[in-house]
Write a structure and sequence with these properties.
Blueprint lengths: L3 E7 L3 H12 L4 E4 L6 H5 L14 H14 L9 E6 L4 E5 L3 E9 L20 E2 L2 H4 L7 E6 L4 H8 L4 E6 L12 E2 L4 E6 L3 E6 L3 E3 L2 E5 L5 H4 L5 E2 L2 E2 L12 E3 L10 H28 L1
Parallel strand pairs: 1-2, 1-5, 5-16, 6-13, 7-8, 7-13, 8-9
Antiparallel strand pairs: 3-4, 4-5, 10-11, 11-12, 14-15
């Protein structure tokens, strides 16, 4: 960590892009986490007609227009997966797959995780259950590991296969699965994680797997696990009209704060979250200079 950003924006959908544009306009130093593809949900959209000025366009076409805007504003996306965010009082520590970052404020602009936690998932978190296979792979050298993947992140499975003695891969998506030949693909539905002090078994609808560890790969993180202490309401992050959460300096926008799950709403919320973060940073600096 060689610097502290003004704002860390988590999520590269329309809300995150809207937040990044406004942070840039307000001349704040920010880091923008996400994917070069921006949003898989957007790219897959067939037609969008409720976004002003972009009628009868496919999600892919709108994505291309957004990319032009990002390029014009010289905004870059940092392709790194954020795992945890910790409030340290007047700044945040962001833990990712690739390292640690610091920021004075955070804007969470991720999608919503519609899937419920598996039975036993939270109980065994840190005791055999994890969310980043490449981060914790060394802990499973010559052990049996199971990956439950809700998104096409097959590289994590391939990397783990070079370390673990056995890897089971359970794809929860419909696309073609292309993993290393040593990996056993299991087409079944996970039901429950079992163990004593640590995980030792995964119960599926039609079978059971003896395993030393389980990695669950989802497109969106559970907000309670992403930011400890965050107030949740009906499985969404609770915010006010300024997109403020209950944690000072932490803001949220997009599907993660609630329905309707529409792009036009996400763009507006990203704008508000950025302006609120800018105001928070300016007020914080002003108060420190007065003291």
């Amino acid at each position: 960590m060689d610097k502290r950003y003004d704002i860390a924006i988590i999520g590269s959908g329309i809300a995150g892009m809207s937040a990044a544009l406004n942070a840039k306009i307000r001349k704040k130093d920010f880091i923008f986490f996400g994917s070069k593809d921006m949003s898989s949900k957007l790219v897959k959209a067939h037609k969008i007609n409720n976004y002003p000025g972009f009628f009868d366009r496919s999600g892919s076409e709108i994505k291309d227009e957004l990319q032009k805007h990002m390029d014009y504003m010289d905004i870059k996306i940092t392709e790194d997966n954020v795992l945890n965010i910790y409030s340290m009082g007047d700044y945040f520590i962001i833990m990712s797959k690739q390292g640690l970052y610091e920021a004075t404020s955070v804007i969470i602009a991720t999608g919503v995780n519609f899937g419920k936690s598996l039975k036993g998932e939270k109980e065994f978190l840190g005791r055999g259950v994890g969310y980043c296979a490449t981060c914790d792979a060394a802990l499973y050298k010559d052990k049996i590991v199971t990956i439950i993947s809700y998104s096409k992140e097959e590289n994590e499975a391939n990397f783990l296969a070079s370390i673990a003695s056995k890897v089971y891969y359970i794809p929860m998506y419909k696309e073609y699965v292309d993993v290393d030949k040593s990996i056993e693909i299991v087409n079944d539905i996970p039901v429950e994680i079992k163990g004593n002090d640590f995980v030792n078994e995964l119960i599926l609808k039609k079978s059971k797997i003896k395993t030393d560890g389980i990695f669950i790969l989802r497109e969106s993180s559970d907000p309670e696990q992403l930011v400890p202490g965050l107030e949740i309401e009906n499985n969404h992050i609770k915010v006010n009209r300024l997109m403020e959460t209950n944690i000072r300096g932490c803001f949220a926008a997009r599907d993660i704060v609630g329905a309707p799950y529409q792009y036009v709403k996400a763009a507006g919320e990203g704008n508000i979250a950025a302006l609120s973060a800018v105001s928070y940073i300016d007020n914080l600096r002003r108060s420190k200079s007065i003291k």
